[in-house]
Amino acid sequence: MPQRWQQAPPGSHWGEFGPDDQRGRLNLVTPEKVLQGVAEVREGRTFCLSLPLDVPGGQSLNRRRIAPRRFAVIRDGQSAGQQGFCWSYDSEDPDLTDVVNDDVVLMSLQYSTQWDSLAHMGSRFDADGDGVAEMVFYNGFRAGSDILPARADAAAAGTFAHYPQPRADALGIEHIAEHGVQGRAVLVDLAHHIGRRREAVGYDALMRILEADGIQVECGDLVCIHTGFADTLLSMNRQPDVAYLHETGSGLDGNDARLLQWIVDVRLASLIADNPAVELVVPSVRAHAGIRRPRLPLHEHCLFKNGIPLGELWYLTELAQWLRARKRHRFLLTAPPLRLPGAVGSPVTPVATV
Ligand code: UVW
């Protein structure tokens, strides 16, 4: 395969696992890291790290995203269960006793607890070195040819045909799913140190917290950041006060160059948080129009430049409290996304075992 790029973005590690790699730093979750995770299992207790997938609910936190809508499989106005026989069989034999229900769901894959694949965000960057910026993703995969074209063959028949159906022919979530996602995780409890106020946590503050809690992040660790945001959201019982939520909770400071450098140098395998974006999203500042920059710099740094998948809106509060009470911060994390070819994100029901 021809080299996809003549120049890689500054601060990136394209090609670290080969020019065609689509899994990024999850490659660092080696069999040894899985065994390290298993060694953290001492009590056999498990925690579900997912919100119910219909949370946030109400007004979406992200206007692009739609909440799950479930549909029964209907025939003649009745679901299969109501009809009392299994109508998927060729002969609708009234003597058959099977009662079957199927259902269908329509939702944004990144509505609630989710993984972002490496196809989720790219950047406008001149990878060819010809002076023209194109839309590029990790390892130089292109928008249009590799990722997110609204493909002619994707126009679905039926009621949802008006939704464009992008598809990641490269970097899709299946590249993460097909290896499973299981390894040693480390929980960093920002909420304990900062409370639930809105604060962008940079390198200095993070190092202070790691030191105070005696935490060492090592190569291949899956790093979970507890801010308390998902717990606040859950307490709103599917009627989120979006204005309040936008003013609450900490997140990593994507504008702190030393923090970004640490993320790369420590060689963590993925970054996960219980807030909507891992980083604290700062509204675009129009006064800076003309200066080319990302709105989500940590997304750019992780997904686009360094192949670090992000987990968002996980539910970490119970686990954080349990670990703190025992002066622990590591656990075995099992969190495979859906193996859905071409998807740019996925709901996930992660499990922590301690
Ligand atoms: C965006 O909305 C860009 O993404 P995320 O859900 O990853 O924060």
UniProtKB/TrEMBL annotation:
Region Disordered, annotated ranges: 1-23
GO biological process: L-tryptophan catabolic process to kynurenine
An example molecular function term from Gene Ontology annotations: arylformamidase activity
InterPro entries: KFase/CYL (IPR007325), KFase_sf (IPR037175)
Family matches, as Pfam families: Cyclase
PANTHER family named among the record's database cross-references: CYCLASE (PTHR34861:SF10), PTHR34861
Protein name, per record: Cyclase family protein
Species this chain originates from: Ramlibacter rhizophilus
